[in-house]
What does this fold into?
Amino acid sequence: MNDEIILSVKNLKKWFPLRRSIAEVFKGKRKWVKAVDGISFDIKKGEIFALIGESGCGKTTTGRLIMKLEELTAGQIIFKGVDISSLSSAKDIKKYKEDVQMVFQDPYASMNPRFRVRDVLYEPLIIHEKTKNHAEMEQLAVKALEEVKLTPPDEFLDRFPHMLSGGQRQRVATARTLVLSPDLIIADEPVSMIDLSTRAEILHMMKEVQERLNLTYLYITHDLSTARYFCDRIAVMYLGRIVELGTSDEIIENPLHPYTKALIAAVPEPIAGKENIIKDIPIKGEIPSASNIPQGCRFHTRCLYAKPICYESDNDPELEENSNDGHYVACYLHKEIN
Ligand SMILES: Nc1ncnc2c1ncn2[C@@H]1O[C@H](COP(=O)(O)OP(=O)(O)OP(=O)(O)O)[C@@H](O)[C@H]1O
Ligand code: SF4
Ligand SMILES: [Mg+2]
It folds into this structure.
């Protein structure tokens, strides 16, 4: 990995309009689901960068915005120095969608059940007009299957998705992204639907491919226990905001935000084979709705350290660097707490 920034996300927002009652329409009131509410981060070339957080915190929406599957409400997404909102020609957008690929949570749902593995792998080549030559397509498909260790490839090319195990299906989903030689892969909960015993194997394969091909990953997950092994840096999301960001070692061994502490305390072994030293960090209640975000620090309704500054302030605390070490935290009281 070098320090070249491949993706830069700046103050990104995605607000979905909420259906209004007739009375609200007449009053001119608009309501929003603030799925992503002002997040910024950079990903370096060759890095595995994780977005971690509870269900509904905006991880997938962030991935979909980067993939240009959603229109952003505000902010910028800069890929290799180019603001992707400025891509206007079909040719430029197509090229971007070749360079940035996504692996989805449920490989079964994202594959046409009537497609054989070869068709699954040929499809992006056809859409992106890479080649019309069948021998060449087969060569690229075989190479991609070898990359993900589905060998011998001939044994898999003519199978349908239902003839594969969950782990094998996720390998095919990864192979499908590789045929286009992307630079950035967004992997959205790639192992959450796979049997526990196969998860480590698939993550190991993904990491090996990433190192061999010098790929960059944005890894989206709610599972902290895989993060330290798999990722270089972690951003912790809460209700549409990033509350902590740092190297995986720092986040897992020295969490600064009360929310991160609570997430880590809930994992029996955040570092494989080592007992969790962060214990008994409680968290109150349930995550609030993204359409009714608490004033001030949005975590205050669940935080046991909250003081008036946390709920009387007009804004959320901004991410600030803790001690010049690339470890950032957004908490008014982090110095006091830690
Ligand atoms: N198209 C949509 N219209 C309205 N609200 C949406 C839409 N898509 C997502 N949301 C809302 O935005 C918020 C963030 O959703 P998102 O899917 O990004 O969360 P997530 O972190 O990926 O959760 P999970 O871990 O469950 O996959 C949620 O409150 C969700 O209900
Ligand atoms: S700002 Fe206050 S409410 Fe928010 S995390 Fe810090 S202590 Fe808790
Ligand atoms: Mg999701």
